[in-house]
Design goal:
Layout: E1 3-7, H1 11-20, E2 25-29, H2 32-41, E3 46-50, H3 58-64, E4 71-76, H4 83-86, E5 91-94, H5 99-144, H6 149-164, E6 168-176, E7 179-190, H7 192-209, E8 223-235, E9 243-251, E10 254-263, H8 269-336, H9 344-375, E11 383-386, H10 387-397, H11 399-403, E12 408-413, E13 419-422, H12 424-441, E14 447-456, H13 467-471, E15 476-483, H14 507-512, H15 518-528, E16 532-538, E17 542-550, H16 554-572, E18 575-580, H17 585-593, H18 595-603, H19 607-610, E19 617-623, H20 626-642, H21 644-647, E20 651-658, E21 661-669
Parallel strand pairs: 1-2, 1-3, 3-4, 4-5, 7-8, 12-14, 18-19, 19-20
Antiparallel strand pairs: 6-7, 6-10, 9-10, 11-13, 14-15, 15-17, 16-17, 20-21
């Protein structure tokens, strides 16, 4: 039944209106204070004001009733009503009025009131839906940006709380397969017995979803983490009577937990949809987070295994070297004749033993070198070098081994007066490995050709599997080729010949044996010179192994020095500072003028001035134009000199552009 508040002290009006509106509930008052109370308690739909009443301040009344959803009707008679009062009324009725006019006016106002209420409700629902959509979008964005399981669950719960404003949430998740955690987020503190009840509820919910799962959880296994907003009172079992929503978190078709929320106010269908959507959104990033965590754990195990393997190889190799040296020295003494003449058979068997000692020593050296390479501890001493003496040395050194198979080694020189920056010993090692490999797989009375020439990187043609290695080269290079007449290699096996412990399976490879590390070591050594290595082969016709080293110039000298310092920093596990300035000259000039801004943005925010935990700085690399790089170079040196205790010795290397052409200055100081 509609309610009407009549504000009047005219008895005839009151009786007449009550008679006409007998089907409605009519409340009468002429007291200002009482009118406001009636509006609060009775919540009338329509208020009829008698404008002739003298005991009412209409301006005051209208200011008060703004907060109430009512329709006002003014009864106009003798008294003049001001414009501001007229502007607040929804309808006007002149006195005298007929019953039909009054009833029609009341019905019209009730329809308007109903439409307004419906519109208000729709607006509230629309506003709520828009807010929930905004929360969903925000939550989805945050979930996509994290690979941390705990953070993902927190983002999910935060999104649910913002959109649904629950009284309590219970989320079961797992730190690992055997460590269930119940996260309680509550407005007030839950009692201990409520917590125990929620743990039991969590176990039952989980078991209902995982009836066929081998892993079961028990109440005593569950760790509880509580987050309470207000501690002024406590929640007890009454929370379990609140309206609730439950959704499971499924990852890879397995239950990773669930979340359940309780709210005193009932949830709507839209609330349920929003809740389910947020919980479903967390499944995909949670899957990625779990996979990432597994990969990280596996990588850590692999790193530890790799470290143990390297340490094992190093220890075993060193332990083997001592007895091998003793054996070799003993065999040398026996064959020298100092302890008496040997029979022909004895000399033959001792010679066989010596060859195997040399072979085993080579394998041990390969293992040690690979171990050092992988640990980043293999030293390089780059200097200006000509390749001819290196090739001649390797050729002469292996001539005796080749002679045993009647193999001839030839060197075709095309690189007179061509210099490179290289470590001579490591270059000899590369060539020795390639030529030794050629001797192993060449037939009796075969021939091995060594050649060298100069080639531009753009003119190097290789098999597709080696193309990525060639693509990173630029400029002119010394190219060395070792060609044999051996068994050859299948095209599909070319790439893997440079892998560790790799020998292409055939009868000859089994016969010649070896560590399978020679070519892998050669590849690492060539790449340490900023070069590349590859091969060509035809089955039963032989193979060609090539490697390139950049020609000697200031740029390549700088790059090798830079690589050497970076390697040093890696091997000592110390800090490397890289300051990269990538901008146009006008911007650089403006930054230089703003010295304070420059210092704060580019220097104090770098490791050089910020990271207090690092005691040494091994390298500073500064990129930019000449003026800017030299200015920053001075600032770095100044900072280091003022913090000698912190940075101790520091290598500095910097680069810049000259006349718009990218170049690198070989300035590096200690």
């Amino acid at each position: 039944m509609a309610k009407v508040l009549l504000v009047s002290d005219n008895k005839s009006y009151i009786d007449e209106i009550k008679s006409i509106l007998s089907l409605y509930e009519v409340v009468v008052s002429s007291d200002e204070v009482l009118i406001i109370d009636i509006l609060k308690v009775e919540n009338p739909d329509i208020v009829i004001f008698d404008c002739d009443i003298d005991t009412i301040d209409f301006k005051y009344i209208y200011r008060q009733i703004k907060e109430f959803s009512v329709i006002s009707i003014l009864l106009l008679n003798k008294k003049t009503v001001t414009k501001d009062i007229l502007s607040h009324a929804n309808m006007f009725i002149s006195v005298p009025f007929t019953p039909t006019v009054l009833k029609s006016s009341i019905n019209s106002c009730l329809k308007t009131k109903k439409s307004l209420v419906k519109l208000s409700k729709s607006n509230q629902e629309l506003a709520s839906s828009l807010y929930q959509l905004n929360v969903l979008y925000s939550t989805s964005s945050q979930l996509a940006g994290s690979l941390d399981k705990e953070q993902l669950i927190n983002i999910m719960n935060d999104g649910i709380e913002k959109s649904l404003n629950y009284n309590m949430s219970c989320t079961l998740t797992f730190n690992n397969e055997k460590e269930p955690v119940l996260l309680l987020d509550s407005t007030y503190s839950p009692t201990e017995r409520l917590v125990e009840s929620l743990k039991l509820r969590a176990v039952m919910n989980y078991k209902s979803r995982n009836s066929s799962n081998n892993f079961e959880i028990n109440i005593q296994d569950i760790k509880v983490e509580k987050k309470v907003k207000y501690s002024i009172t406590e929640y007890d079992f009454e929370v379990l009577n609140f309206d609730n929503l439950l959704s499971f978190i499924d990852v890879n078709d397995e239950c990773h937990g669930f979340t359940e929320i309780f709210r005193e106010k009932e949830f709507t269908l839209e609330d349920s949809t929003c809740f389910q959507t947020i919980v479903q959104q967390v499944a995909m990033p949670l899957k990625s987070a779990i996979l990432y965590q597994e990969i990280a754990a596996t990588n850590k195990k692999l790193e530890n295994l790799e470290k143990l393997k390297s340490e094992f190889i190093s220890i075993v190799s060193h332990e083997l070297r001592t007895p091998l040296t003793t054996i070799k020295n003993s065999l040398d003494i026996l064959t020298s004749g100092k302890i008496g003449e040997l029979s022909e058979n004895a000399f033959k068997f001792i010679g066989m033993a010596k060859r195997n000692v040399v072979r085993l020593s080579g394998i041990i050296n390969d293992l040690l070198d690979m171990s050092k390479i992988e640990a980043g501890k293999l030293d390089f001493k780059y200097s200006l070098t000509h390749v001819d003496p290196v090739i001649e040395y390797v050729k002469n050194n292996l001539a005796g081994v080749a002679k045993e198979k009647n193999i001839k080694i030839e060197y075709l020189q095309k690189t007179k007066d061509t210099n490179v920056y290289a470590d001579t010993n490591r270059l000899e090692q590369v060539l020795t490995n390639l030529v030794s490999n050629a001797i192993k797989f060449s037939p009796e009375k075969g021939k091995i050709k060594i050649s060298s020439d100069v080639i531009d990187a753009s003119n190097i043609v290789v098999e597709e599997c080696f193309q990525p290695d060639i693509d990173r080269l630029s400029g002119e290079y010394l190219r060395v080729c070792v060609e044999d007449e051996g068994i050859g290699i299948e095209k599909e096996n070319l790439k893997q010949v440079f892998d560790k412990f790799e020998q292409i399976e055939n009868s000859l490879s089994r016969e010649v044996g070896g560590s399978g590390l020679g070519l892998a070591i050669a590849k690492q050594l060539v790449e340490a010179h900023n070069g590349a290595i590859w091969c060509e082969s035809v089955i039963n016709s032989g193979s060609k192994f090539y490697f390139t080293i950049p020609l000697a110039n200031e740029r390549n000298k700088f790059l090798l020095a830079k690589r050497q310092l970076l390697q040093k920093a890696k091997s000592t596990s110390s800090t490397v500072l890289t300051v990269n300035i990538k901008a146009k000259t006008p911007l650089m000039d403006s930054l230089m003028k703003e010295k304070k801004l420059f210092n704060e943005v580019y220097l104090s925010n770098s490791l050089l001035a910020k990271n207090e935990n690092d005691s040494t700085l091994s390298l500073a690399i500064i990129d930019g134009n000449k003026t800017f790089a030299e200015f920053l170079h001075k600032r770095v040196i100044e900072t280091i000199s003022q913090n000698k205790e912190k940075y101790k010795n520091c290598d500095i290397i910097y680069t810049y552009e000259i006349e718009g052409v990218a170049d690198e200055k070989n300035s590096y100081s200690r």
